[in-house]
Known about the structure:
The protein is built from nine helices and 18 strands. The chain is α/β, with parallel strands linked by helices. The protein folds into two domains: 3-196, 3-Layer(aba) Sandwich (Rossmann fold), CATH 3.40.50.1170; 204-320, Rossmann fold (3-Layer(aba) Sandwich). A hairpin with a 6-residue loop joins strand 2 (15-16) and strand 3 (23-24). Helix 3 (88-98) packs parallel to helix 8. It starts with a strand and ends in a 9-residue tail after the last helix. 47% of the residues are buried.
Amino acid sequence: xxxxxxxxxxxxxxxKPTGEGLAPGISxxxxxxxxxxxxxxxxxxxxxLFNLDSTNVCARHWLAIAGHIEQNFEDYDGFVVTHGTDTxxxxxxxxxxxxxxxxxxxxxxxxxxxxxxxxxDARRNLLDALRYAAxxxxxxxAVVFDGKVIIGTxxxxxxxxxxxxxxxxxxxxLAILQEGRVIPYIESPKPASPVFYRDMNPRVFxxxxxxxxxGAIFDYLAERFDAVVVEGFGMGGIPMYEDGRLMEAIKxxxxxxxxxxxxxxxxxxxxxxxxxxxxxxxxxxxxxxEAHTMxxxxxxxxxMWALAQSRDPRQVRRLFCRPVAKDLL
Length: 329
């Protein structure tokens, strides 16, 4: 029987009602007590790493999760992290960069309703994650939710209330779980050994363009951040306003040694700066990285990982443009 380490971090799945709304209050052992069937799937050790609403989770918590998995990697066959849904996709992407080439599964799950409630998706999601963690074919970082297994760099929360909250963006699901069975869609060879990273640089900002954007924002950001992700319109590009100030501000930003990544505000099908003049011009005149079909969660966390390895924009570009866990297709 496979040995699985359950790492609880809080979230809706572990929440109880309080006078100020739902808040995490259920321990890892209490979570397991709600799914006694799990004992028939695998041998589980439950640990509480922290107990937070995932809105409060950030880079130092991602590092704590990855570090805890590294410390216990040789002792277990797989890992299941219970987590809030609001930043689950960020955590899944971050772990994809902090734990690369894992021959063992590192799975993140949670729920839209607390396991404390009668009508909840929590029990199914937790059991599915444990079942997939115990499957011989499972490896790498993934989100298990609503019967779907989504590779960590491709998950995104698309609904705030429904049980089918997560989608796989521009990449097929790895597997589904139906009535206790794992049905794989995509199988790949297991890597030989993992590579762990132990640092991230959180000085990354996401700027969502609005019509008439004032270029002065880039001068402000250059003083405070090492990289900026620009969510452009449609296939991407920078508006060519008559005064030219926006483009000039962007050129000053990159000339100061900062990293600029261009993506799109549109959820599916990605950017392509080569289609329209507004994209071609910025691509040809500015040192930038194009994210194509990467999710915003993957872009942000990959930048944090790359910037922790080097502050040199050329090295950051090299690291960012190397595909990891199907983030670049």
